[in-house]
Amino acid sequence: MLLDKDIIELGSISEEELKTAIDALERIDWLNSKYDRHKWDPSLLEGRQLMFPCLLSPPNQRQYEGDEKYLSDVFMDISSNIRDRIFPDWKIIRAEVAGLGSDKKVLPHKDIRWFHEHSKRIHVPIVTNDECFNIFEDREYHFVEANIYEINNRIVHCARNSGKSLRIHLIMDVISPELYREGIEDDKFFIITQEP
After folding, report:
1. Which domains can be identified in the chain, with CATH numbers?
2. Which pTM value belongs to this model?
3. Which of 76, 130, 136, 183 gets the highest tally of CB atoms within 10 A of its CB?
4. Three-state DSSP state, 85
């Protein structure tokens, strides 16, 4: 959903949620190539990703076992808590944990689909360092660990990790019940609404 600013800070997750999330992340080897991001999207090639079971998740990313299931359950609980606190009655349509290694970047891009235009994109840094930045056009922001941010993903944005440690964010999209119904009934979620 297009904001009139780059980011809005919405609060933070609890210390207990942050600790539980970090403990769950330690069970996963983020350098394993099976977590490579979307190979079809060049802007995201250097990132790592594990999507969670939501409406817009690919079918192969809705069922997990072992440590991946535990991680998915922990992060979906945190996502649901955020939604219940900040966006009651809204639907989580997409959620993932996204990693960006040392000296890696997400290239400049805009999110161009109907669901991007009508949902709110939320970022929660779980692990970060002082050299991680989210950039909107030419404006840089360092996202603080455990804070909840709504971002403007409809303008050119990117990210970089110039630090020596991994950066991991919980990323989720939430949508109002009315727009959720419209997206389902009219099959609109993946319609392209803006030029890349």
Report:
1. 7-185 (2.60.120.330)
2. 0.93
3. 183
4. helix
Per-residue pLDDT tens over the stretch 18-69: 999 999 999 988 777 677 655 556 666 777 788 888 898 877 666 788 998 9
User: What phi, psi does 138 have (nearest 5°)?
Assistant: -120, 15
Half-sphere exposure of 49 (CA within 13 A, CB side): 20
Q: Do residues 189 and 114 lie in contact, with contact meaning Cβ atoms separated by under 8 Å?
A: yes
Tokens 């440690």 belong to 165
DSSP assignment string, 65-84: -HHHHHHHHHHHHHHHHHHH
Q: What is d(CA 121, CA 151) in angstroms, rounded to the nearest whole number?
A: 6
CB 41 within 8 A of CB 110: no
Burial 148-172 (b: 16+ CB within 10 A, else e): bbbbbbbeebbbbbebeebbbbbbb
Evaluate whether 129 touches 167 at the Cβ level (below 8 Å): yes
Contacts (Cβ under 8 Å, ≥6 apart) of 58: 51
